[in-house]
Design goal:
Elements lengths: L1 E5 L7 H20 L9 E9 L6 E3 L4 H11 L4 E11 L9
Antiparallel strand pairs: 1-4, 2-3, 2-4
């Protein structure tokens, strides 16, 4: 998902718009995680970036994406924020030293 979300809607308060953005992000992550995994894949990992524009977006971990959205929304001067979430296959590393 690569999307620019507007922070201003005529019928909603800014706090509700931000909550709506967070809800859309949670739905997308949940949808991606529920997809069937390939044989050699252990889990779905994500590359995330959040910022006021595509050029100014900085990397964020999935667990801190809500805080990154709040920070970007507070710093947004043009009235929109950019969110990029790309899913990728994740593989656990073996901790057995004999392998």
């Amino acid at each position: 998902m690569k999307k620019t979300f507007p922070l201003e809607k005529s019928s909603h308060k800014p706090a509700r718009v931000i909550e709506s953005i967070k809800s859309d992000v949670r739905k997308y992550i949940k949808r991606e995680r529920s997809k069937k995994l390939a044989e050699d894949v252990d889990y779905i990992d994500f590359n995330c970036r959040v910022g006021i524009s595509e050029e100014a977006a900085s990397p964020a971990h999935v667990s801190t994406i809500n805080a990154a959205i709040d920070t970007a929304a507070a710093a947004a001067t043009e009235g929109s924020i950019y969110i990029e979430i790309i899913s990728k296959p994740g593989r656990r590393k073996s901790w057995n030293k004999e392998d």
